[in-house]
Structures are given as C-alpha cells and as structure tokens.
Amino acid sequence: MNNGGGVKKMKYVLVTGGVVSGLGKGVTASSIGVLLKACGFRVTSIKIDPYLNTDAGTMSPFEHGEVFVLDDGGEAVIDKERRGDYLGKTVQVVPHITDAIQEWIERVAMIPVDGQPGPADVCVIELGGTIGDIESMPFTEALGQFSYRVGAGNFCLIHVSLVPVLSVVGEQKTKPTQHSVRGLRSLGLTPNILACRSTLALEENVKQKLSQFCHAENIITLYDVPNIWHLPLLLKDQKAHEAILGALNLHGIAREPNLKEWTSRAELCDMLLEPVGPSKFLFTYLAIVAMFCLRFMYLNHKLQVRIAIVGKYTGLSDSYLSLLKALLHASVSLRKKLVVDWIPASDLEDETAKENPDVYKAAWKLLKGSDGVLVPGGFGDRGVEGKILAAKYARENRIPFLGICLGMQIAVIEFARSILGLQDANSTEFDPDTKNPCVIFMPEGSKTHLGGTMRLGSRRTYFQAMDCKSAKLYGNRGFIDERHRHRYEVNPDMVSRLEDAGISFTGKDETCQRMEIVELPNHPYYIGAQFHPEFKSRPGKPSALFLGLIAAACGQLDSLLHAHKIPNGMAKKVSLYQNGNATKFAKIPADGIYSNCNELDPGDGKGEQSLILIFYTGLPVVIYSRTILSKP
Ligand code: GLN
Predict the structure, then answer these.
(1) What's this chain's function (predicted)?
(2) I need a labelling partner for 171 at 20 to 30 A (CA). Which of 133, 380, 439, 614 fits?
C-alpha cells in the first residue's frame, strides 16, 4: 500500500518496555506487525538489543536464550572513529553515537525485505531492555531525538508496562507504570499507547487513572491468553490498530484488519494445546470428540506426536526456542498435538548407565517412546556420543529423524562408524587427530564479521536430485536459501565413499564442496541439514523439513508429499548468491527464491536484517537488531 504520492516517508512504531523485563515486548512488537499487515501495509522491523558484546553469536544460550540468526548473519561494523571520520574530535555519546544510531535505523528501515520493490510502509522498532536501564540510555536518547526528527504523524510509541495485582485485595496497581512513563517522558518520549500486561483486563477506573496520570489516550490490556497467537487478536479487539493508524496518519488508506486465518490458527492451537471444558466450549468439545472418533474409527491416525529433542541445553528450553516454535508451527499445520520430550544427550551414554542407571534408563525409555527424533545444533563435545547413539537408534529402527547443523554432522559420523566401519570417524571439532575426519573445519572468510570464521547467515543450497524427500518438501525448487551458523562441515573428500555406502547428499552449495542436506533414501525419514531451517519457520508457514519430520512421525509423509505441487523445470541453476550486507541482500531478485515463510514472501512482510554497530569509544556499543515479526 502506498501511503501518498512522491517520495514515500517511512512510518515508525517504537515499542519500549517498562517496570520489569520479560513482559512480552517482542511478542507485542511482532503482533503489531501482524496487525498492520492485516490492515494491508508492508511492514519491516528492527530489534535493538543494547548488549556490549561485539559478537552476539558467542553469547551463552544459558544467559540469553537462543542465538537467533538472520539472513545477513547479523554482523556489521561501523568504525567511524577508527576510519578517522571524526577528525580526531572527542567521540561522545551525544551527538556521535546518538546520531549514528538514528542514521542506522533510517537506513535499515528503508531496506525492502519482503521481495517487493521499494521500502516497506511501516517499520516496527523494538527497543530491548527496560526504560531506565543504563545500557539503553544512548538508544532511548537517540530515539527521543529520532521521534522529533521524523516528526508528528510518522512516529507512534507503544510502551509495554506492567500493572501488577495485589493478591490480597485484588487491586490493579498503576504506580509502577506511572513511574516508567515518567522516565520515558524525561527522555523526550511520549507514549501514544500504553499496553499494560496484567492477568485480567484492566478495570475502567484503572484505565482512566493511567490515562490521566500518564497523559496517554490509549490504554490497552495485554491480559493472559491461552497462547501467544491470540495477541494480535487482543490488540485488534481493543482497537490498537486504530490508535496506531491515527498516530501515523494512515487512517485513510488502511483497510479493516483481516485476521480470519490467523484467528482460526490460534483457536486450533488452543484445541491442540489444552483440553477444552465442555461447559465453556461445548461446540468445540463436540467437534473434538467427533474428530477423535473419526480418526480412530476410519483413519487410525495419531492425534498427538511425540518428538524427542536430544540436545545439550535441554534444561533450558529457551535455548531451543526457534526449534520449539518450528515444531509447533509444523504440528499445528498438520493438526497434531505436539509433545516434546527433552533428552539430555549425555544421559544416553554408557557412562551414565554406570554412574546413574535410572537416569540412563529413563532417557532411553523416552527416546524409544518417541515418534520422531530431533538432534539440534550445538557446539562443544559434551553429549556428542549420546547424540550419535540417538541417530543410530533412529536409523536402525526407522524412526523419523531430523539432524540440524551439528545434528547433521552427527548423522554422518554415525553412518561412517556403523556402515563404513570407521570406528574412529569423527569431527575434527571433537577429535582433531581422528584418522577418519568425516567432518572438518571449513571456515568461510567473512568480510563483515570481525575475525569471524563462522559461516553465518543466509546461503544457497542447490538440490542435486528432484526425487529426494527434501526437494519434494521444499516444493521441488531448484534451490533454497536458509540460514547457517557453523564452522565445520562434511569432509568433501569422504563424500563419494559415504555415498557409495548408501547415504545421499541431496543438497550442496554452488561449489558442490559444501554438503547442505543429507538423506538416507531407504529410510522413512532420515534427513540432516547443515543449515538451520527453524529460523525461517512462521505460524501458518511451517518450515519444510520440520513439516516432513512431523508428517513422517505421524505416518503421513506420503500424503503430504503427494499433496505438494511439483512445478516443472525447477533444477535450473542461477548465478552465485551474494552474501553479505543488508544492501546486497535487498537486491536479490524475488523470482525463484525459496519463500517458505521467508522474507521474500510478500504475504509475510518481515525484515530479517540485523545491525551491529561498534563505536570505538573505549567501550564498544552494540546495537543488535533483528526481526522477529510473525514469530509468535
Ligand atoms: N559445532 C558445529 C560447527 O561449528 C555445529 C554448529 C551448529 O550446530 N550450529 O560446525
């Protein structure tokens, strides 16, 4: 939708958080994106995380949850001071850093990321942290200036805050929100909308009090919902879009938000996640009962699917958030209830059998009870042998298996050991002296990453055969673009030996030196991917390989593959895909690019760029920006 003639002006929605962290600012920002898209706008987004790390990729998942990877790999450096741009002047937070932050935001916001020409209509910016944090000060200051710079009618501020309820009296307390809005105002930012997290909807008098003391006209309650997919609906019901469109002067050109599909998916998810009480939802209940009967009587299909995740950080499911979401997107789309069994890989090892037999038994029981096995990515050698045992079990017992990144490398090591009889086959990451290095260090020099050897960000994979499962699942495209984050890869010198023994490298990079997808053709579903397909999975647009895993785990892979349309003449090769910075990425033509829930799908409209800005001021300052639109 074009918002006016001439040069289009970008409209900005800034989402800040107050009182405490973990209020769901990200989900709110994503949901606003969904809502604005439903109004007919093209939306991009930026996330700013005020960390001091220069490389987000090295942060521990224990502290920060998962490291989310973007198409551009998330690494870019400005070194204005070192380049001498400041001509020896003292570099200060204001104006040097704040100016640079604003320039970056403006530049990144204009990059089209949905495959359509020209910039998006609206850019949703999520400012990480909580208002008042020292870390976010330069950013809040910059954004305060920015609101003035872009001018009224182009900027809408949504402040997500907390309204706690004192359990004794059940009173909804407004004071913390009042304080955080005061903090916001002192930094030159005035909220257009207060989005208040609370257990229940805010009472009318509480809303009035908030709007009076915080001078905010629009008060919205983000009360507890059965699953986060309800959030865009909650915002719509409370007319958040009208307030946003009003602040952005977009009223005239917006359409009524169409969230029909989204609503039914959220309801389906409720049904699959929660047992529904008959008194409350009699109709739904009856429908479920009917569905149960039908399934059992005629189709004999399973209603739930158990997936064992054999990983390292299984105690902290946040480390595998994208995996979980990707599994959920796939299972909801196949109308299955997802049950995830977390298995710490080391519990499957012989060592545990000796030291802790009960733990060992429990782990194997879980693995054997699963319908599908997922071995995710990982670094370091802890649990590697356990993951190899899990891959072996899945291969030998014909249990659907998906190995991601390290999981793929594990599958290859296991195959080399068991089928080629190379007992010491290993990755040089774990055994640098192995005589049979089937996975080796294959760094990729990155110009955009300081000292980086990681193969990071979007890379292209070409299918080597059209009749393999992965190509079919991806709709028989000639190639796909998926995100990477690794240093090691299958040793190209061992590929022919491995293939002669029956494993198939069905996806490779443009040089055919990097193995991207591996499959066992004679197995119901045994696939490994060097990339991370989970990062591009979206609600309603599940990732192909996850969909395959869930379908295979439910015995529905054949019908899924038959249902896929297979266009002709797909195996054409295209010119080399350019990696690197955001500008280059934006130039990739839309045609032929794999758009399963990715940035080139016009219907999805989310930016997937990142920005990291490092100023040499004695202390590095990092803006880590990423897009999580449509990610709930
Ligand atoms: N550690 C492996 C590598 O660096 C796998 C990385 C991953 O799984 N993301 O190649």
Answers:
(1) Catalyzes the ATP-dependent amination of UTP to CTP with either L-glutamine or ammonia as the source of nitrogen.
(2) 133
4 inside domain: no
The DSSP code for 540 is T
Domain of 60 in residue numbering reads as 11-265+606-625
Q: Are residues 176 and 80 in the same domain?
A: yes
pLDDT of amino acid 454: 82
Report how far ligand 1's centroid is from the alpha carbon of 424 (Å): 19
Lowest-pLDDT range of 152-156, 442-446, 451-455, 587-591: 587-591
Residue 576 lies in a domain: no
321, two tokens: 């958030």
Alpha-carbon torsion angle 353, 356, 358, 364, nearest 10: -40
**CATH number (domain holding residue 216):** 3.40.50.300
Evaluate whether 125 touches 45 at the Cβ level (below 8 Å). yes
Question: For 583-608, how does the pLDDT look when each residue is reduced to its tens digit (9 = 90+)?
Answer: 233 333 332 323 333 333 333 333 34
- CATH number for the domain harbouring residue 438: 3.40.50.880
Indicate yes or no: pTM above 0.70: yes
- Tell me how far the alpha carbon of residue 454 lies from the centroid of ligand 1, in angstroms: 9
CA distance 198 to 540: 28
Tokens read off for 94 = 């204001």
Q: Which residues line ligand 1 (CB under 6 A)?
A: 377-379, 405-406, 429, 485-488
CA 378 / ligand 1 centre spacing (Å): 5
Ligand 1 atom nearest residue 439's Cα:
10
Which residues on neighbouring strands pair with residue 156, listed in sequence order? 13
**Do 304 and 260 sit in the same domain of this protein?**
no
Return the amino acid letter for 284.
Answer: T
Question: In this structure, is residue 564 part of a structural domain?
Answer: no
- 534 catalytically annotated: yes
Q: Is 532 a catalytic residue?
A: yes
485, 490, 535, best to mutate for ligand 1 pocket (most atoms within 8 Å of CB): 485
Dist CA 19 CA 570 (whole Å): 53
